[in-house]
Known about the structure:
Helices cover about 35% and strands about 15% of the residues. It is α/β, with parallel strands linked by helices. Helix 1 packs across helix 2 and helix 15 packs across helix 18. The strands form 4 sheets. Strands 8-14-13-12-9-10-11 form a 7-stranded mixed beta sheet, sandwiched between helices. It has a 3-stranded mixed beta sheet with strand order 1-2-3. Strands 4-16-15 form a 3-stranded antiparallel beta sheet. It has 19 helices and 16 strands.
Amino acid sequence: MTDRNADTGADRHGDRHGGRDGGRHGDGHGDRHGDRHGDGHGDRHGDAGASGGRGAGMDVSLASAWAALGGEPGLLRRVSTVVREGALPARLPVRELARACVGVCALAAAEWAARRAGLAQVPRVRVDDGAVAAAFVSERHLLIDGRAPVTFAPLSRFWRTTDGWVRTHANYPHHRERLLSALGLPEGDATAVGAALAERSSLEVEEAVYAAGGLAVALRTPQQWAAHDQAAAVTAGPLVEHDRTDTAHARVTPRPGAAGAAAAAGPVPSGGGPLLPAAGVRVLDLTRVIAGPVATRTLALLGADVLRVDPPGTPELPDQHIDTGFGKRSTALDLTRAADRRVFGELLAGADVVVTGYRPGALDRFGLSPEDLLARRPGLVVAQLSAWGPYGPWAGRRGFDSLVQVATGIAVVEGSAERPGALPAQALDHGTGYLLAAAVLRSLTEGAADGHGRVVRLSLARTAAWLLEGAARGGEAYRAGGGGVEAFDGAEGRLAERDSPVGRLRYALPPVSFDGGPGDWARPPGPWGVDEARWR
Length: 536
């Protein structure tokens, strides 16, 4: 079984989750709103339902996701969907999860746009399964000067153990070194690692590698995961945790004429440009790999000034940075240095949103806990993303999409205990990323009304629980397998090409779509860490 999961290590600022699976889809570019006709994948348009809930037992739907975000149920009538049979085929309701996450993100953007621009009604939202499917595997569609991204690491994969399977991540040099160290191998290739793992139990490997600071997770069934203390901690909380703070209002709705070009930007640009609900909003992006960068990439699409900040000693994988860097700028600051901490403080003083994607508590030593951030910048929106959730015995562990799939039983559902499988995309990463962007947008909308800041928290493990809950509510149809329907190639008409500072790019267009909204990012990605640490 091949694996093209990407990993990251931000040890100086904290470690986080990530991952990506490999594969390549067909070429093509054109109108992202174009429908496919006469191809056996008929279109079905319809309004989203207005029912939903939160917590355990939620169905995987737009309505339940919108309810989890605290959205007004009546706004769901503004959403229509284009159903593409065969998109993201799986035993679990992956297509429905992807559609819901993108749909609520687009609706939250349209809601915020209507408030900022003084529109009489919220713009209509259109969710096309084809566009969503293409975006959920954006890393597979990316070409850089005709070259496919380099993402595969030989030691990132499933391995046999004495009693089952484990999955490892070792794409980054320090995680590879820690894996080898845990196995007592000064050096090693796949053959040596496989031989060492074959002599140990899955749980023994899981604990030994994590104790060494590496990444390995034992394969569990959904029932085994349900009995785990971390599963109890995860499912006890909502899909989207959001808390209102009692601090004063931040600069989340810039007024025309305010100091600075970015602050003067409004949601309706002059010259007939697209409606940009996040124009003038400043976002500090402290995320890595996929889920967090997908969220901030989406905020950049909607007009936000997004500045990604990384530690200089642990650069992002270049190709991975390109895939999730559209619309954003990138700088490097070493928060162990007083001078860089001062620069970061200046950035924070002008920020409206801070998005973090490191392990809970990993940034606290730099004064970047939600409480510290809100004390320094009252009214701020703080969005926290983690792999395993903020509570429970695994809260402080590093984690990645594919590892969460293995721990929670998704890999067994998609394959078997004898031959584990995987979702057709890194759906936990991408789905949680769009949910996170939606939570930020809803926080901005609510903050504009009540004058308070917000803290929102999401995790890959909670999104995984939602997916499994949705399958249980859907009955045996999901468990019967993803076969029987021809796979839909969602890439046709949903790819674009453009020149960039890093080369000629082919890439998937964004799936977030509402009337008058943007269809592409205003700027392509640039090299990692080269931009000035300042707001526009």
